[in-house]
# Entry
Amino acid sequence: MRRNIVAGNWKMNLGFEQADDLVNLIAEKLDEVETETIVIVCPPYPYLELTSDLASESNFYAGAQNVASFDNGAYTGEVSAQMLASMNIEYCIVGHSERRKYFNESNQDIATKVNLLLKNGIRPIFCCGEVLEERDADKHFDIVKNQVIESLFSLTGEEILDVVIAYEPVWAIGTGKTATGAQAQEMHAYIRSLLTEKYGKEVSDEISILYGGSCNPKNAKELFANKDVDGGLIGGAALNADDFLAIIASF
Ligand code: PGA
# Structure
């Protein structure tokens, strides 16, 4: 059954003490609520152990924000999928637009990462989305289609079931400018139709497609009310426990 998911992407924010406080607060507050929603917290690497320790005692998961595109070895500064797996990390964001933009990650690089994660039993949260010029030029469907095909469509029908997709229009990330529920639904339905075409309806019906981009407690309900929007990948609002919890309560 397709699950609702809310994942918090802390990006490169917070010192150790602040991170410690935030994740503890999230754990405490989550313990007080009943939710069917899968909650994932993706802190920077140095805070992953802290997060996964708490997650193992609470009802959320720890996720990484990135992974190396190589196996273990002489790749200074990188963190492998095998390392994440050895820490029981169950999710990892890949292909975030900030990785594409600042670290020149290509669809092919992202495909490699997706494969390495799956090989190590970690569920990729695969991000896709267009920039503003592409939307203005009416190319957003083609761009997203290409990202999905080039990074995911070498997977088998069984493998793709472990992938979470996050549609994040780049013009909405960190800008305060959110896609409308209708815009999100339109793209999510399109992504699902691509999955149906390739893998069949039984498979595509099972895949969670999240929306990301200035999602907050005020707009989450409108976004999540759409049939193909199965939750959110949350940046800024995930740095505040009350906001994050309010988003989780928005289904
Ligand atoms: P935002 O970031 O919620 O701050 O827009 C979302 C993301 O980049 O995943």
Summary: The first strand starts at residue 5 and ends at 9.
